[in-house]
Amino acid sequence: MSTWLFYSLSRKSKNVAKYDVRVPILPADKEIADTSFKKEGCSTEIPCYAPATGAFLGLIRPQTNEDIDLAIVESQKAQNSWAQTSFKQRKQVLQSIETYVLEHQEEISRIACLDSGKTMIDATLGEILVTVEKLRWTYLHGEKALRPSKRPTNLLMAYKKNYVIYEPLGVVAALISWNYPFHNLIGPIISAIFAGNGIIVKASEHTAWSAAYFTQIVKGALEVCGHCPNLVQTVVTWPQTANYLTSHSGISHVTFIGSRPVAKLVAASAAKSLTPIVAELGGKDAAIILDSAKTDLPRIIEIILRGTFQAAGQNCIGIERCIACPNVYNELTSALEPRIKAIRVGSTLDASKKHQVDMGAMISNVSFERLEKLIEAAVHDGARLLVGGHRFRHPLHPNGNYFEPTLIVDVTPDMAISNEECFGPICVVMRARDVEEACNYANQPSFGLGASVFGAEGVEVETVVRKIKSGMVAVNDFAAYYAVQLPFGGVAKSGYGRFAGKEGLRGLCNLKAVCRDRWGWLGIHTSIPNTIRYPVYDTEGI
Are 332 and 323 spatial neighbours (Cβ–Cβ below 8 Å)? Predict the structure, then answer.
């Protein structure tokens, strides 16, 4: 309610068209005991279940190569006319989506929770708030980012003027991950259609159940505003079929959100058609806590807990490591232990005063063995496991996918758990002797997505900001991605390219350089001097 009130009061435009979308109906009560079978080849349909409870949600028919061909053709037809729309028309669509999201945020959040296992608070922060912010930023500032931009000239070409225009690419594609089923689906659509493109979104098979409803929210806005809803298409396929989409000659650009191994396959596939891609991959984000942060530890601990355990740690820019300097290390670990022990796991959708929930489920049980082995190996090599460390069988939801909130300290940079992405509810704490060593530890893994630094504003903080090798850094906070006006992406093995911000919008355009006569309107045009005309003028009379 507070989110709706804030944005409703601050919204400036009344250029909104109202519409309704049919909300998916839950099937009869049924649970799936073995949730590990959601993989290619086991069925002609994709079975969908609620990770928090094992409740059966439905069956989704995976789309074929022929379905992908049809989706691209339909989007291309719609894009031909959409590319001619004004920014005012595009803003109306985004504002209408924003209004729908705000007025239906609870049902959107509940559906995201059912399909991903997260809590309602996690959905409000990571699904609703960020999506509304991106919609708002795009319709308020997107036009400025895509207006023709003037470029300076030089003395030699003083009679010319230069500028860049940003033209739609056509139909683009986005392959999205399951950890934020609403935001990851809607986010690429917002940028693509505002830049004048059509888009095909390949939703994850893990969250296939919610994808159709979330897509229909955009289609409904397009239709009620007088545009063809076929501009936006969603496909759900088995991974092997996705190769057909990424190598398709009808796709002009690919945005990929996912893991490093799959990114290599996507890049190789897209290369067949020389299709450019933006790859947003995983991270091993470090939170560096300087000695100067000692008096601010109570606030910092709250941020660390949110940054580590939001979405059960399944957050590409979540805090994967806490690197603490000597004077704050002991106090930090002592304060974290009771707080993490107190975290309650379960399904937020059946939470009551008797069974309150802080953290939800993981998407599946596939990574449990890997996480347990990382923790066991670290303990064997000298780390101390203070909280958790194992999979958890929930007494109310025995078919849910739960892992204990975990705290492991005295971790050293040679341990696998300090270098491999966990993507789970694990707080890893490392000790550094000084700022330089903290930066070295932070930069050791091959990832470079995000990072954060906590301390008194000054030279030390600035040193960390400059030394950290990452695409994003937050100072005295985490998750720079909430600032949707900034470009989002990483370096090294965390991917390349950027989405979000003006850089993300322009990345979905053909940047056309234009050079023309400055005084052409007066009939003054470029002419070739006699001395360089063909055939070349003979100055010696030969």
Answer: no
Say how far apart CA 438 and CA 489 lie, in whole Å: 22
Q: Which of 74, 127, 205, 280 is catalytic?
A: 280
Determine how many CB atoms are found less than 10 A away from the CB of residue 147.
Answer: 13
Fold of 286-484: Aldehyde Dehydrogenase; Chain A, domain 2 (3.40.309)
Reply yes or no on whether 404 is catalytic: no
Tell me: the pLDDT tens digits for 229-281?
999 999 999 888 999 999 999 999 999 999 999 999 999 999 999 999 999 99
**Domain locations in the chain as residue ranges:** 2-281+497-510, 286-484
Per-residue pLDDT of 452-462, as tens digits, reads 999 999 999 99
- CATH 3.40.605.10 fits domain 2-281+497-510: yes
Number of residues that make up the chain: 542
DSSP structural state of residue 448:
-
Round to whole Å and give the CA distance between 245 and 237: 10
Distances (CA, A) of 196 to 89, 168, 185, 219: 11, 5, 17, 15
Report the b/e string of 260-293 with b at 16+ CB within 10 A: eebbebbbebbeeeebebbbbbbbbbbbbbbbbb
pTM for the model: 0.93
